Amino acid sequence: MGKGRKTVVDKLPHGQPTPDRAARGHRAALTTDALPPVIGMGASAGGLEAFQRFFANMPPHPGVAFVIVQHLDPDHESLMSQLIGRSTEMTVLQAEDGMRIEADHIYIIPPNRYMAVTDGSLRLTVPTEHRGMRLPIDFLFRSLAESRKEHAVCIVLSGTGSDGTAALRAVNAAGGIAMVQDPATAKYDGMPRSAVESGYADYVLPPERMPEQLLSYVKSFGGVRTRETPALPERLEALWKILRLLRVKTGHDFSFYKKNTIFRRIERRMNLLDITDMALYSRYLQERPGEVERLFKEILIRVTSFFRDPEAFDALKAKVMPLLLDGKKEGYPFRAWVPGCASGEEVYSIAILVSEFMEETKRDFTVQIFGTDIDQEAITMARTGLYPPGIASSLSPERLKRFFREDEGQFRVAKQIRESVVFAIQDVAKDPPFTRLDLISCRNLLIYLEGELQNRILSLLHYSLKPGGVLMLGTSETIGPFADLFTPVDKKWRLFQAKPTAFAQGAPGLPDLAAGPDESPDLEPPGVKKTRGLTVNPAALFQKVLLDRFAPPAVMVDSKGRILYFYGDTGQYLKPPQGQPVLSLVEMAREGLGHELVAGLRTAGMEGTEVVRPGLNVRTNGGFARVDLIVRPLHTEEGGEALFMIMFEKGQPEGKDKAEKPARRGQGSRRTNELQSELKYTRESLQATIEELQASNEELKSTNEELQSTNEELQSANEEMETSKEELQSVNEELITVNTELYSKMEQLSQTDAVMKNLLENTNVGSIFLDNQLHLLRFTSEAAKLINLIASDAGRPLAHIVSNLLREDLVADAGVVLETLQPLEKEVESKDGGWYLVRVMPYRALRQEVTGVVITFTDITAIKRLAREQEAARAYAESVVDTVREPLIVLDASLRVISANRSFYGTFEVSPEETEHRYLYDLGNGQWDIPELKRLLGDVTGEGKTFRDFRVEHQFPTLGRKVMLINGRSILRDGKPYQILLAIEDVTEAESGPPKHRRRGEGSR
Fold first, then answer.
1. Which of 10, 26, 61, 71 is catalytic?
2. Rounded CA separation 319/321 (Å)
């Protein structure tokens, strides 16, 4: 790409060459005016880091000026100048009102100010909006678009929100460029992501790579420009190739757009691609189809906003609405059309205006407003009706609250407004128009078109309007030669009322070149004249024929005798008749030529050969002159209209012998010759007429037979049409029924969707829905707290989203579930210390097809906290039990040992493995297998039951004789079935003497 680039000599403002390039740090070429290139930069949160990375890679003397807008606290002094100054050697200043812009300077906005660039100076104003509604970056970028036009350069860096996005549309329309920080490198990606998704970002780069690309682009300011460079033939030829390629690839023809506009948009793409030769760019388009689509979108200048030119809409509401709707009955169908509607803001603005008018007048009409454009992407956005927060600057708070609904940080058009508009893909230059319209708003579309197409579209718009309907044009547009079809309503805001015509007007034709890629003729360079649907070059054709015949006076005519071209002095043979000017050859022919011209044209047309009528006497101003008339048919392209060349050659004068005869005899001979000539002509004409009549009779007979056959076919077709009409009526009734059912289904779906949305939002369970490619489909607000999601993330890969979970890979888990179709469940911890139960499950459609993955997040922080508390309590209890000196043992309801304390193991010299999970009566050598003890244990399996001092005496193999008292109590633990706690007290020493009543197995409850 860069090999063919021309070298641009750097110039200072006064025209002297700059110092050495290396010493000056690659100083960029300046523009043709005194003001250096001005770069507008905007950032919000995280912007300081981005600015430092940007200027750390910028040469110290780039030859450009930077104007920076940062979202600042309006009540505190800014330190941005000092902080940015650490990263660059350029002069960094806090801007002041009226400060002149100089190269190699950085100007930073002060707190609580708006900043604009006008006439090479900075203008500061105090904001009047509420703090939350301020969009200072949009304000700066719009001023650059207005003042710098195609030299506007704007850069969007890190930040939250969408400030700057709305103004990029104006920058693009002016021919400027937008650089946007790669969202992946931004500390806060809200602003960069919004700018990228708008479609107006020309470069998406990390801050450290922007300076090199920026300086490379700024050098192109000194390159070829349409207004300074003559339209050289090779450039025009490349332009026609590009337009033909656009027509073939996109189906849209731009040959009737203004050439300066086309040149500017093409050169903008060339500058972005570092291409300086238009022929090279033409080849680039042929090799890369994607660039054709980008150029197509580049040419489609989408400059629109809500209530653009508010005073124009005030005039529309105050003057036009009463004019159109006063006196109309309730339910009157009000129809409007906005051709070239772009992303739909103007369509919705008119719908809002009509809604306000109906409310104020307390009347109700059926409103239907059509918005059309050839840009599929723009129409899709218009149909969605979802707009960024920046529209708040174009709408009053009352309208914003009434006609829009907040939808996850953006604004969605209210349902009652959306239902009154219809959007469609349509090319006003070739597609059929809407008809019977009350209002057409065609603003700032005609200014991009050539005069011929302007006139045809204006005629079409008049045809589309009802008598009395109103046409609204842009402030730079006029109705031109159609003043007799419209009455001005408001000249300032270009409001015109259509006059009724005295005749039935049909839909006007449109240029052949607008018919489409398969129907329109090939584009030809300027200089080739389009003549009544023919593409000929009269000058070249005349030169070829007349040089063969030594260039006698001649005219070119069509098959109807209309003169298309004069050559030479034809005044001796043709003269204009009195009255209105005409170009009919027969009416302009002098005496003696009329009959011969008619006969010659007819013969040449029928036979296709040259016809020569020699020796004709033609009356001239001073008498008669002899003329040889030659009628030669011209061969045009196949299917083209027949053309004829009429040449007038001077005839041979009469001989001297005839001249010496007596005058009377000469007069008689001349009269005789005239009569003979007329008789000969009459005979030939009569013979030709007879032959034509015979041929016509034969044709009439054949035609009559065909008509009879056609009549029978028409009768049969009429019967079929009657049958079809009945069938169509039946089908129409069925369609009405189906439509009613579909409408009912839509209402049910809307209600179901609302229920599901409320259900998902109110369960406090975060949910994320992914498709098979793990792209986001939808999510709940609870999930957004964990995964950092916003409304515009729909459609993005999950892997691109930052998660607030620790040590968790949701993408891998979702991939496993998609592959195995087995649900997955795990507990994870978030960065703020919360715990969540994550379930990953296949998403199954109505037909049980797996179409994605559902991830849910259930907050179990309280459960985890309770579990930790219970675990701590259990540990505490077990430590207490282990310190008790008496042997303790816990049994379940079936008298199986659950646990015992250390004293038990130590006293009876057993291990936990020998004790736990065994029945009590199986322990040791059966010392606990006591029927009375079993009975007592069976009796305490209830809440609060106990027995005390059950006496057991046993001879242990290793311990010897032991006397023990057993105490038992039922306990309830963690909601499980009742368990039994046994406490064993060794009383052997206390009963060393023989007791009075000592009996084994004795005890008490």
1. 71
2. 6
